[in-house]
Amino acid sequence: MPLATLPAATSGDRTGTARHYLMCRPEFFAVTYAINPWMDPDQGADTAQAVRQWEELRAAYERLGHKVSLIDPVDGLPDMVFAANGALVVDGRVYGAKFTHAERTAEGPAYLRWFADRSFETMEPTHTNEGEGDFLTLDDVVLAGTGFRTDVAAHVEAQEFVGRPVVTLRLIDPRFYHLDTALFPLDGHNVAYYPGAFSEGSRNVLRRMFPDAVIATEEDAAVLGLNAVSDGANVVINAEATGLSRELERLGYNVVRVELSELRKAGGGPKCCTLEIREATGA
Ligand SMILES: CN(C)C(=N)NCCC[C@H](N)C(=O)O
């Protein structure tokens, strides 16, 4: 059944669309290894606090009228909470993830199985890719990051499978190791991004494609403010991204601030916890 159109955000005349998200409760969340500059196993993380913060995120989506489905967490996979990395789903077609680091390898098949069990059309990837961490879907194009995790060969493979043009963007700053740390779609046609995370060529591509983009500061990017989730009217964003939040409000978005400081210790924010299930429209 198609999801309904959300009412316009109260602070503007933008109209959001209800979404279907897959999330994974962080019952086994921990920082026991370091595969990005945000992670410090000596500092660790508080699992109970991570669960509380994650529950707030889930509740925020449900309050906005979105549907949330859950995948069971697996003991021994502490990063599985970052559901965005589990796959790319476009028009009901699920392109599986193949992780860069051995610590996360088992997550790929676990996510793909969830979709196969529910009769989605799935594809096992040949090439390394970290799902929606590096693939961000707009109406007519999929933006795809490379440089740290996802191979360009996976961009080509994904394009063939989902049938939307895939545009490669090169990431150059290790703090912003996935595309979803440096850019998020505001709606089907526009984005917000931090230019310093991209190579010069990719910055030029973004300028050309999105002349009306919202440009974020390094300060907001450095608290993972761009790891945000928008339905076109409501933007769920890390509370610490104060400048970007104010700018989005000025532009008429309803900004929903969430506190995910515990998950940031593993390098994740709201978007990382959220895999969008874009079902087949029949079109
Ligand atoms: C916003 N990002 C980067 C994500 N989409 N996922 C977070 C993954 C964190 C995990 N420790 C890792 O380094 O893979």
TrEMBL record:
Q: Which domain of life is it from?
A: Bacteria
The EC number(s) attached to this protein equal 3.5.3.18
The answer to whether UniProt assigns keyword Hydrolase to this entry is: yes
UniProt GO molecular function = dimethylargininase activity
Record's keyword terms, sorted: Hydrolase
The protein, known as: Dimethylargininase
Per the record, the gene is ddaH
